[in-house]
């Protein structure tokens, strides 16, 4: 369950003041993932506190052009249910997409698997890489990539090729069923 899972709630053991400071630092650094987890932890769902800090941090982030990912904690809960059975040389990765039509605030995710590191694969998508066989990127990722979301996949890597391909589809479908806009996950 997410209420005790450190992947879903990485700041659950922190004092409220520590979370507030970290949220401001994350917003200043443009770290959307940490900012979103901090705001989720400061919400009435998890803490019985005055909402002034939550509102002030949200306002500060929005002035910097950052809109927190309201479904990130839910996505972490969903991906945290998957337990790898193998180990190998393949990796899953999840990319945050933004400015998607019809989505408010326009976020979605792309789920993929690769024999490369998630960082290398992200750069291939972002830089529109090609090889002699053709494109190594997804158009939707190239146009809308924001950042990797390692808290959603790092607990699963590395995997065997077969399990990586299998989990890519299963995780994408589970996230879709959870109401999160998903691309990829072939």
Descriptive overview:
The protein has two domains: 53 residues, no CATH class; 101 residues, no CATH class. Helix content is 41%, strand content 13%. The mean pLDDT is 89. The strands form two sheets. It has a four-stranded mixed sheet with strand order 5-1-2-6, sandwiched between helices. A two-stranded antiparallel sheet has the order 3-4. The protein is built from seven helices and six strands. The protein is α+β, with helices and mostly antiparallel strands.
Q: How many individual helices?
A: 7
pLDDT average, as an integer? Answer: 89
Fraction of residues in β-strands = 5-15%
- Spans of at least 5 consecutive residues whose pLDDT stays below 50 are none
Separation, N- and C-terminal Cα atoms: 27 Å
- Structure class: alpha+beta
Our Rg estimate from Cα atoms comes to 17 Å
Order of helices and strands: HHHHEEHEEHEHE
Sheet with the most strands?
A: 4 strands, mixed
Number of strands: 6
